[in-house]
Amino acid sequence: LYWTVAFIWDYLTFMVTCVIYIVVLAVFQKTSAFIELGQVLLLLMFYGLGFLPLTYLFTFMFNNTSSGYGFIMLFNVTTGVVFYAIGELLRLPTIDQEDLADDLEWVFLVFPSFALFQGLENMDVIVSGVMDCGNDCNFIAGCTLETACNWTPTCCDLPELYSFREVGIARNLLYLVAVGITAFVAVLLIEYRVFSKVKQCLTWKRKPRASADEDADVTAEKER
Q: Where is the chain membrane-spanning (predicted)?
């Protein structure tokens, strides 16, 4: 019950922060459409679902609050910015390790910060592509995003936002939910000492029983 109440409260607090962030985007980026801001908010909501339970899981590793906060900050920077930079470096023509980058991407998505960072980047790529095709249509009479392919080849296969393709956020959302559920279940198992109880049960079953004719004093001495 404690962790459930804590999660609800922390998630509501996190959502207040997300709404403030969206309001700031709406004020200072007037070109952003309402639907685009809603997509960013959706990704942030899923990020909270994935990251908060993982943070609770980390609390069992530290007895000192400051050490825990320091670790969380370092963890966010490493798994978010650094891992994303590694993937982009591997895709450079001079390195030409795009297959390795794609494989690592599936692994890095386990980390909520990377899933958030990459999801925001994918949103920017998709929105920029749609805007570029729309701008090209402004100079052609009767042009739409569907017919823009006739003049601009890059507009022929615009990626969808909620897809499992490389440029899409469906994978990110799925990973965030899966990580959140797994971490929260792990927290409950640790809190209720399930692993310790299972270990004790297995140890008790492996413990040899004393024979019927064995002296009680000898048995007591062995059990010490």
A: 6-28, 40-62, 68-87, 173-195
One-character DSSP codes across 175-218? HHHHHHHHHHHHHHHHHTTHHHHHHHHHHHHHSPPPPTTS-HHH
Which residues have C-beta within 8 Å of that of residue 98, sequence separation ≥ 6?
90, 91
How far is C-alpha 7 from the chain's CA centre? Answer: 16
* Whole-angstrom distance, CA of residue 214 vs CA of residue 211: 5
Q: Which amino acid is at 80?
A: G
The pTM score is 0.79
pLDDT in tens, 40-97: 899 999 999 999 999 988 888 888 878 888 888 888 888 888 888 888 888 888 888 8
Q: Name the DSSP letter for residue 159.
A: P
